[in-house]
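Inverse folding, one chain.
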């Protein structure tokens, strides 16, 4: 039950992120369409004001929503007394964190998240550059193709929460990675007028489905790794996010450093980046997942929750808190009944 709720939360979080991306590219399309001229549809240095307007519009919306969030979320001031038992809890927390740090499963799940995030990020960054380099003469495609990618991301975000219970997050990740590889191969071998005008939108759909599927399932696998040990949750998410930011930054730096000084030397540079780097990250995720199949994510959840129940029963009585504790234990493990509460 807890894992299902966490997975649902991750799906909702990613859906909100997709909505934000759809909004950004919708504004981009409106700006390009409204300023379209009969003489030239390609992006040039004279179009800098268009991007300025897009950034201002996005910044204003972001500022308004941030202020709304801080004003709308109530804050509670609580004072916690540090007791001997709390010190022991903090010591066990550090011990559990060190165990996670030395865990091979944490490294595998972090690599899964990094691979999915790298595919998602690099597709968004280099798809417009690829379109400008190889595919379309129409500036509106710089907005419509990524916009279609985001819209296609909605399909998995709504379906995964139902499929994860039957297929499992590992199977869903593998399917999403396979779709991502197919999209990269389509980019590599696609050519001609039909590809530039119509097939590119099919590529955009596959990229959206593949990236969102792997992203959501990797987040769900991270939640499965944490299980009921929510006290280590902040550390686990911080670790995988740090690995994501660091490796993505290094990859983007290397890509920009290796770019040819002249377009004639590398006429299909960004196409090769989408195929090799994005496709390689999808293959990396599949490889890591193959090594992860022998490990049951969250396999000790039942035993750990049973241990928590036994530990809770053996604790000294706390009349003022026992009702809340009993309710919490009943949610953690099904064998615990509120009728066992102490009076």
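Residues assigned per position:
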């Amino acid at each position: 039950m807890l894992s299902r709720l966490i997975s649902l939360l991750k799906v909702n979080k990613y859906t909100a992120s997709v909505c934000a991306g759809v909004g950004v590219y919708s504004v981009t399309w409106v700006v390009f369409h409204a300023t379209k001229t009969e003489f030239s549809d390609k992006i040039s240095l004279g179009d800098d004001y268009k991007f300025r307007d897009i950034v201002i519009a996005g910044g204003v919306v972001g500022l308004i929503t941030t202020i709304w969030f801080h004003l709308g979320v109530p804050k509670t001031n609580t004072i916690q007394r540090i007791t001997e038992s709390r010190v022991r809890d903090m010591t066990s927390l550090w011990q559990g964190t060190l165990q996670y740090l030395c865990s091979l499963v944490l490294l595998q799940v972090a690599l899964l998240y990094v691979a999915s995030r790298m595919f998602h990020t690099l597709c968004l960054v280099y798809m417009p550059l690829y379109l400008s380099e190889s595919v379309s003469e129409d500036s509106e495609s710089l907005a419509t193709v990524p916009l279609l990618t985001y819209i296609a991301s909605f399909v998995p975000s709504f379906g995964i929460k139902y499929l994860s219970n039957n297929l499992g997050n590992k199977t869903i990740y593998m399917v999403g990675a396979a779709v991502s590889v197919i999209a990269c191969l389509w980019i590599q071998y696609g050519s001609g007028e039909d590809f530039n005008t119509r097939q590119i939108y099919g590529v955009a759909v596959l990229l959206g489905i593949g990236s969102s599927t792997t992203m959501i399932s990797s987040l769900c696998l991270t939640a499965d790794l944490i299980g009921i040990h929510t006290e280590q949750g902040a550390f686990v998410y911080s670790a995988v996010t740090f690995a994501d930011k660091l490796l993505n930054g290094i990859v983007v730096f290397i890509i920009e450093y290796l770019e040819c000084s002249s377009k004639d030397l590398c006429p299909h540079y960004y196409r090769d980046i989408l195929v090799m780097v994005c496709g390689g990250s999808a293959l990396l995720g599949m490889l890591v997942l193959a090594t992860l199949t022998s490990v049951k994510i969250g396999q000790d959840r039942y035993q750990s929750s049973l241990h928590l129940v036994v530990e809770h029963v053996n604790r000294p009585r706390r009349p003022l808190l026992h009702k809340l504790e009993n309710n919490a234990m009943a949610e953690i493990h099904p064998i615990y009944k509120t009728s066992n509460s102490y009076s």
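The two ends are 28 Å apart (CA to CA). The chain has eleven helices and no strands.
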